[in-house]
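Lecture 7 notes. Example A: sequence first, then its structure tokens.
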Amino acid sequence: MMNFKTLVAGALASVMMAGSAMADYTFIVPQKPGSGTSVWTSIVAGELEKHLGEKIKIVHIPGANDIPGFNKFHNDLQSDDKTVMVSHGGNGVSYLVDDVDYDYYQYDPIGMMNLTIINGHQKDFDPYTGEILFSAGSGMNPDMMAHILLKGGPGLTMAQGAEIFDSQYKYIKGMSGGERRLSYQRGELNVTRESTAAYNKYYTDAPYSKVWFSQGVFNLETGEIDADPNWPNQSIHEVFEAKWGVAPSGEFWDAFELAGNFRDVMQKALWTRAGNPNTPALVAAFRAMAADPESMAKIYQKTGKYDWIIGNDMKDALDILRGQIQRETLTNLVGFLQHTGKAAIFKEGVIPQ
């Protein structure tokens, strides 16, 4: 019987054989099928094919913290001109605090959606007073930090956040996406999070789940987190002010905001090798899709209406994010993540000079 590694190796072999002469594009997703990124990619690829004029197949390369798939693209797969990397928010946070091979600045940018994450809780659970039971995973550290921020209130320090994590939080590692959803359905977890597409798919009509907050939408002009128009009055700063009477601020908020901005802006982004002759066609197909009311209606119905960032505007967005990195804030973020058991590292190279 083939094991999982054999199946992945076979998929990779197929990718490498799919040369530029073949019609299909291959989109690499660094997660298992059924993940939030997989759901989003399937939705978008179905519409993008209409404007690209070629088929798109999706290959999943999962691994620890969703890093191996992106590293594999960087080291081995990007040489194929028909291969596109679909990175996501966990990769954005890892770019800040993990030892990774990939570097967004080394690729041609294709297109991305300026998305957010939805956090929900069991309807009979009060997340402000009860012990939170939440599944850890790639891209989920900003959500964990948001939970602690909302529990802790105004002016939360890093030390106070660590104390809340130690005394009022269980960050449960090792669950797959399917296991997490089943555990939440059973009530074994009392807080969950999903991409907008996945939350709409799994929980919008679930009688046991209630939206706690949207992480909000990053404003590329102001650098601030704006209210999410798809979830009125439920963005994190609105929920915080409704609970505590003031806007969130302080060193814990700053560390959360840094991680959250990198996660959410970079949540669903497509890249191909620098100088790829297919880049203009891919970018043009994204622009055509974004201008097609029928395609957008189908996508927005499942994801919510969020802005598209296409072509070199993606690197402009990345420049804005990097410009927000302060040494003290990055140091605080790395230190807190290490406290929670993550092998985070301080990366001098991501700080703008």
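Example B, a different protein, same format:
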Amino acid sequence: MSSSSVCDRAVELRAHIEAIAACAGDAADIDEAGIQALLTAAVRLYAARVDQTGKFAGVTRGGITATEGLIAASALLRAVNVAPFELGLWEAWS
């Protein structure tokens, strides 16, 4: 698959996800396993991009609220059994 084709598909996927989020009257009704799979894939793609290119701001400033960012960050840390203190150490080492 060509690079432009992948980029086009990523833009389409983002549009679909934003449409789902906008229409979701009650987020609790959205399939949990589907959201987990989507977030897992997004995190893996983000990590691959950072590994290949160096630092990469995955979210634009103002793209999400502080609450949304902290909820997601906390969930990711819990999923990999890492405490915020350990994250701070890891950041200091890299």
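Note on Example B: The chain has a mean pLDDT of 86. The chain has four helices and no strands.
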